Amino acid sequence: MKKTRLTALFAVLLVGVVAMVAAGCGGDDDTTGGGAETTSAGGGGEALTVGSDIPYPPFEQGKPGEYTGFDIELIEAIGAKIGRTPEFTDTSFETIFRDVAQGKFEAVISAATITEEREEAVAFSDPYYLSEQAILVKEGSDITGLDDLSGKTVGAQQGTTGLELGKEKADAGELRPYPEGPDAVNALKSGTVEAVIIDAPVAQNAVEESGGVEIAEKVPTDETYGIALAKNNTELLDEINQGLEEVIDDGTYTTIYEKWFKLEPPKEIVG
Amino acid sequence: MGEFFNQYFDFDVMGAHFSEVLEGFLRNLLLFAVVVVLALSWGLILALMRQLPGRKLLPIRGLTIAYIDVLRAIPILIIILLISGGIPYLEFLPKEIRIPQWFGQPDPFWFGVLALTLVYGAYMAEVYRAGIEAVEPGQMEAARSLGMSHGQAMRHVVVPQAVTKIPAPMLNEMISLLKDTTLVSVIAYAESVLIGREILAERFNSSAIILAGAMFLVITLPAARLVDYLIRRNQGKVARGAHIEVG
Questions:
Q1: Collapsing DSSP states into helix, strand and coil, what is residue A94?
Q2: In this complex, do B194 and A174 lie within 8 Å of one another by their Cβ atoms?
Q3: Which residues on chain B are in Cβ contact (under 8 Å) with A94?
Q4: Number of other CB atoms surrounding residue B149 within 10 Å
Q5: Distance between CA A197 and CA B76 in Å, rounded?
Q6: Which of B204, B207, B210 to mutate to test the interface with A (most CBs of A within 10 A)?
Q7: Residues of B in contact with A95 (CB under 8 A)
Q8: Burial level of B72, CB count in 10 A (0-12/13-18/19+)?
Q9: To which H or E segment does residue B167 belong?
Q10: Selected residues 90-119 of chain A with any CB under 8 Å from a CB in chain B
Q11: What residue ranges define each of the domains in chain B, with the CATH number in brackets?
């Protein structure tokens, strides 16, 4: 009796595993996959599969099923304009462009800077955000900016512009790439790194939410964020650009921007 | 299919970044070398504490068993994150200990050493214990009846016999340990997988990670064969009824 039950249990587990694998391996057009990390934002319309590296507050944050943040609300607003409902997949930033190019999801909104390198792999929408890098330090640190990082231990997130900036402009003693931005901020708070180079809004968020850290300097980068798509997906790209324009024109963009950054949106975007 | 090979087996990418990945792999080996010495020692100490006799030493036995069970039951990744994130906050410790940078190695290295030693000490303690329990109880009894203390009997009679029984399972633990040194990448220790992922972020190509995997194979595959050989040799000895020499 006991043995039969055990066999039955294994059978159920096996079926479950097979079902999950099958859902995870679905093709490009598989928008009904029931993987635990895919979550619908609710509302109507056909699903729009979106990849994002979560958490990266205030751009993307929250638990599966209730993701929120600037990027998340913006793509939801754009989705509402074009009649698509975003479904989010939490994924790793360093593989995110490869995955969208391969069709694992249709679009990427993940605080992604538009660069020439990345444009070789994917197509970007019109810019939806202008970015600055910040040098984040412990409160009371004598580091006042990029020039003071000489010989210091500096943290950044793997695969990000902050890390590039650290490599190219800061004469750091040691540059440590952490898997996620919050890991680097954590290392700063615990004192194992002396500064972190990270996107300005993320730094601002760390200052407000975690305390004990401050922004030593904001470094302008002339960089803009875009929504990334597979290169051959030009139809959706047009739709998203159109949706973005509408969202900017009707003031939704400004509302979302002020909610998340507590600042007015830059003129370069809202005109 | 071609895309798959381009993504994971691009030999140009592997060639262009070979020395960087190798440098990372040498950091894996360095971490392994330090941890293996410490964990073998710590594991033996734990195993011996677990075997302490008598009612008076029951608390020590209990604590040791609890330590071994708990450390084996928690994912190593969590231990690494806890140690690297937690120890720097212990302000009663001097800075050299909270943020250790001894012998020119960065603090993620030493946090990795501590975390892996604590966990692998527990794993290895179980291997020693299996070896100790495989020694016939008569050996201990005979040694005690000759007037040896428990410690002397362990040191001169039981442990020397136990260690001859455990090379194969111990080598298995070492193979696991070598592979687990990659987990320290999570606290930005620049070992081979972290470097491979950096190259992925830069080139949008995963081949450097596969190259790191190949470097592990060079060490772990022969080691796995060696484990098999040791098991067969040991079985052969037992089958022939040979007595294992006691030093």
A1: helix
A2: no
A3: 197, 200-201
A4: 11
A5: 28
A6: B204
A7: 200, 206
A8: middle
A9: helix B167-180
A10: 93-95, 97-98, 102, 117
A11: 2-246 (1.10.3720.10)
Residues of chain A with Cβ-Cβ distance to B206 below 8 Å are 95
**Is this structure's pTM higher than 0.90?**
no
**Are B177 and B39 a contacting pair, CB within 8 Å?**
yes
Which strands make up the sheet holding A195-199, listed edge to edge? Answer: A174-178, A153-157, A195-199, A129-138, A213-225
Q: What angle do CA B175, A175, A89 make, to 5 degrees?
A: 70
**B176-218 per-position pLDDT tens digit:** 999 999 999 999 899 999 999 888 877 778 899 999 999 999 9
Closest alpha carbon within chain A to B189: A176
Which token pair is A230?
A: 């597979």
Contact A32, A21 (CB under 8 A): no
Which tokens in the block code for residue A43?
């509302």
Contact A198, A156 (CB under 8 A): yes
Predicted ipTM beyond 0.90: no
pLDDT of residue A253: 95
